[in-house]
TrEMBL record:
Organism of this sequence: Metabacillus rhizolycopersici
Catalytic activity: hydrogencarbonate + L-glutamine + 2 ATP + H2O = carbamoyl phosphate + L-glutamate + 2 ADP + phosphate + 2 H(+); L-glutamine + H2O = L-glutamate + NH4(+)
UniProt keyword list: Amino-acid biosynthesis, Arginine biosynthesis, ATP-binding, Glutamine amidotransferase, Ligase, Nucleotide-binding, Pyrimidine biosynthesis
HAMAP family: CPSase_S_chain (MF_01209)
Name of the protein in its database record: Carbamoyl phosphate synthase small chain
Amino acid sequence: MKRQLILEDGTIFLGEAFGSDEEKVGEVVFNTGMTGYQELLSDPSYCGQIVTLTYPLIGNYGINRDDFESITPFINGFVVKEYCDFPSNWRNDYSIDEYFKMKNIPGIAGIDTRKLTRIIRMHGTLKGAICSADANPEEIIVKLKGMELPTNQVEVVSTKTAYPSPGRGYRVVLVDYGMKHGILRELNKRNCDIVVVPHTVTAEEILQLKPDGIMLSNGPGDPKDVPEAIEMLKGIIGEIPLFGICLGHQLFALACGANTEKMKFGHRGSNHPVKELSTGRVDITSQNHGYTVNEESIEKTELEITHVALNDGTVEGLKHKHAPAFTVQYHPEASPGPEDANGLFDQFLDMIRVNKKEGVL
């Protein structure tokens, strides 16, 4: 069965349908990772987006029970050059087609994904629609041009109630803005006593939990669409050691007086080189973000840049000059991707340990 991918600029791709028959719209983005499509499609940071994979063959090891980064996938569509009907792996439970039918996600295959990626790189991310072959393109294009992208993605993906993940070590409050399970796994691996809380949590509610540290998760969308998080952080910074990842990094910057801005096409992939300024060390990192902290806006704040992206020079890490707090734009928990930066979780626990010893907490 044929299916169309229609972009708001009028570009039309005709390909083969797989997954759900439902028509969906969203911001079209691309990811350059060669593996890890299951972790990618279950990453809540892709909420509402149509994801294009630049690697040509997807689905060859199927879908298994263990590699999800969230229980529910939030993507609105998948675009691939070729998908595998008959995956081969000892852990395989479903083909990608079977899983997408179960989760009501449409896919399109057999199109020139290299051409699509070049369009996005040239013009920036575009709104698009995955629809049936007989849909009227002119009507779809008018609809896309008049459509506003949603601003409530964090509300959609965040937990609605707090819950514990018990351990015997330091108590860490993990604020869920669209948390990947990899973050929880890394904290569990270090025996942290974790309390996961919703994105609407207040500073007072966090302090009542008597945490040793606070972790800010990744998440989808524009950080300025989560003003309650910015206000919460203003009441926390300097009180509790803090570590933020991706959206958490951007929210931390906004709370400290810096600014964020939308990128042309963002960073999405598992091979992005990042340089630590203090040591010159370069890590290959996993990334997924469409917004960045404006470098010039940092100058009048109490923040210091710790990491930069080698591909385009954008800000990849920050630390507070006086408070025990640091953040990174990339994903040290990987999933999928290299684990070069995994030691940042140990750095977070070391920061907690030092602050408890000095009597700050």
